[in-house]
Amino acid sequence: MLASTALVGVLAATLAGACSKEPESRFVPLPGSDDGNEDDGLIVDAGPGGPPPLDAAGLCGNQLHEIISDTPALYFVFDRSGSMAVQTPQGTAYDVVQDAAVDVVRRLGALVSVGAAVFPDAETDTEACNPGKQVMKVTKGTPSDNGVDGYTTKTFAYQTNGDPFGGTSTSSTLHGLVDKLAAIESQTLVLLLTDGAPNCNPDASCDAAHCMTNIDGICREAPDNCCAPTGIDGPSQCVDEPATVAAIEEIGALGIPVYVIGIPGTELYADVLDAMAIAGGAPQPGPPFYYRVDDLAALGDVFGAIASVAISCEFELDGQPPEEGMTNVYLDKDVLPYDPVDGWSWSNPTTIVLHGEACASLKNGQVMQVQIVSGCPTEEPK
Asked: What is the Rg, in whole angstroms, of the alpha carbon atoms belonging to the chain?
């Protein structure tokens, strides 16, 4: 994959560069929409017409450095099949999954870019095994502003919303995403979340031991194979392991790991998800090799732990500060002391590294913006 540059801070500014224009709202097209129709966008608060003065943000200094980094992309692939409609105290299983993902996108803010696909792309019984589709192209994250979600979080929540329906068309969905994933010019992680085994492949072939309706004990022709070519359910209910593993390997050949996450419902298919996880190049150290989530309340922590793998605590600046001992690092609006244990230090004249608790706070989503400012004496530990 090609490296790219992205802003984690904001462009260099001076106190004299402030604008006083009042905030205004405007229409913003959703990622992936091409026609500019208002139905395809969100009305968002575009904010002030220019950057505020540094002292208005509570930052000390007169030069806000541009940070050059390869912002990682988290690409979510959600199983939104009919089985995800199972009810929980918080709504359907899919509602809980989506809420957890939105929360991670919200917490990580500008530290990541985000994209998403859902499967199947179905609204009627005749479409139940359609391949899924990308619903949000990879978009730079935006932090919350005074508790109001940024554009990327709003868009991600809007585009991944929907009612569960249809089958689990995993292999065709992943195969169809290969070209889109190949076009992403940054480090990318695919997070594949499902509640069962893949199916929906009309070209599959299996015996009764690998027929999902037989495995689930609902075969209406038991003990015969319901997935036989002439069976009542047909080949589309075969466990589609070979084609799914092959599609995951296609993505892996791009240098993109696929993290396989299974929520309750996957227990009978642990071997299948283990094979998918191993093919994805990011298995857990021991069985189960996929990320098995038995309690949906823990799903957000799983998403966050996977994302933290890609978030770096090293920041390269656009140039060397003009004077030694006159630079400070801000995590959100809080100044971070210069401390090689739990603060920050220089690794070279243009690169800053966060350490210890500061790095951990960044990786677990407690910090949504890093800003580096020159012009005031470096803050030392108290």
From this structure: 24
